[in-house]
Every structure is written in structure tokens, then in C-alpha cells.
Design a protein that fits this description.
Layout: E1 9-12, H1 18-29, E2 33-38, H2 41-51, E3 55-58, H3 64-73, E4 79-82, H4 97-125, E5 128-133, H5 146-166, E6 171-178, H6 184-197, H7 201-210, H8 220-230, E7 242-245
Parallel strand pairs: 1-2, 1-4, 2-3, 4-5, 5-6, 6-7
Helix pairs in contact: 1-8, 4-5, 6-7
This protein binds nicotinamide-adenine-dinucleotide.
Length: 254
Amino acid sequence: MDLGIAGRRALVCGASKGLGRGCAQALAREGVAVTIVARTEDTLARAAQDIGAAGYVACDITTPSGRAAALAACPEPDILVTNAGGPPPGDFRDWDRDAWIRALDANMLTPIELIKATVDAMAARGFGRVINITSQAVKAPIDILGLSNGARSGLTGFVAGIARKLARSGVTINNLLPGNFDTDRLRTTMQGRAKAAGKDVETVVASAREAIPVGRFGSAEEFGAVCAFVCSVHAGYLVGQNILLDGGVYPGTF
Ligand code: NAD
């Protein structure tokens, strides 16, 4: 299927590895001019070369100067993929105000600032796609990821409101909710769970895999493929949705 987005410009955040990289790769394969963002120059430069990215910006996207640098490199994206590292796992009793502000900055306010900076120009051009990489934790919270549950739910509520306001101008905003994908982040989360449960990591990984109806963790490539479809011309009727990619873990009918 031709996704109809060749020649479009995309800004993909948190894209030197993991899910962001999967999205950047899938978009680049469709002929999109992709600018990728992550903090570490050398891994990012390597990723840009592997993916065939149009450009890259080494910066911390959760800071105003980082966002300014990213938007200077890709000033008028047609496609925006928001993503940054997730907050650390832990016990809510240990999180002070600073920990909460860091989580809100990274996983709620950064996507909101990037949306604010880009969607009006998308609307003026009559086409735009925003994908926020959030988490299954929005739908099925995980106790040790309370910072993530809270910050991402705030973003989800915000998106639900504005997605409807922009839909008429050809701009769609949707969230992709990863379950367990085989990335560095998953390994950190598993270590956190093992520590909290007093078990070894291998045991926790094996039982997590066992609990997934498809019997395996997801790959960044399959996450990227869904992202590319949602960014395509064929997905113009998909507005303000929370698309759960979890191998069937969530047991609800809806
Ligand atoms: P990852 O650690 O494999 O990759 C994260 C990427 O973001 C890297 O390229 C990193 O350099 C970049 N990054 C992190 N902080 C950044 C910052 N401040 N500025 C710029 N770049 C930054 O993580 P992942 O597994 O790909 O996860 C992506 C997002 O999805 C995270 O927010 C994570 O919490 C969430 N998530 C992942 C899973 C999973 O199973 N992998 C599940 C639920 C939610």
C-alpha cells in the first residue's frame, strides 16, 4: 500500500533507538524527510545514517532550548512524533515535587509545547499528523510507574480535547500506547519490577512474556509500521484515538 506521504517532512523525537527509531525508520522508508532527535550525538548520528534521515539534532527535547533547536532544524513538519524517555519506576512515597515536575515536563508538557508550535502551520497547509508515544499505563496503570501513569494521562486528556478542534483542517492527533516492546526501556522497567518483587530479572521477563497472548514482546519495527500507517493519507478519519499495541494483554472488550 502506498501511504501517500512521500516528500512530507517529519520530526521524530527520542529516535536514536527503541520505538522512536522504529517510527523514524518506517517513515523514512515511505520517502518522508525525517529529522530525528535524541540526546547523544554519536548514537544519534549513527542512527540517522542507518535510517537515511534527512537530518538530526542532538538535544534534550524536554527543555525549551532543546525544543527550539529541534524546531529550527525542522521548522514546519507535516508529521510530528512526540517521544522522550519514560520516568523511572519506583514507590510513590519516594517521589517529591521535583520528580513529578520532571515527569510532567518530559511526558506531558513537552508534547503539548511541540503540538502548540506545529499544528497551526499544519492546519494552514491542510495536512498534518501528530503521534504521541504514550503507554499502556494510560489504559491499565502499573503501580511502580505512577509518574508515567499520571503525566501521560494528563497528555491524553489534553489531546482528547484539541484533536476534535483540529480535525476539520486535515490535522489528526492520535496516541500510540505501547505494551511490552523489546527495547532498552523495557529492560529498565523489568529490572525495576524484579527489584520491587525481590525476584531475579530473568524470572520477571519470562513471566511477563508468558502473560502476553501473542507470547512475545513487540518489536520497534512493528510499532513503527503502525505509526507510519496512522501518519498516512489513509488514516484521515482516525481522530483523537488511543491505539493500544500490547499483544492482547489488556483483557477488556473495548
Ligand atoms: P528507549 O529507552 O529504548 O529509547 C528512548 C529514546 O528516546 C532514545 O533514543 C533516547 O535517546 C531518547 N530520549 C530519551 N530522553 C530524551 C530526551 N529528554 N530528549 C531527547 N531524546 C530523549 O525507550 P523506548 O522503549 O523506545 O520507549 C519510548 C517511550 O515509550 C518511553 O517514554 C517509554 O516510557 C514508553 N514506553 C515504552 C514501553 C516499552 O515496552 N518499550 C512500554 C510502555 C511505554
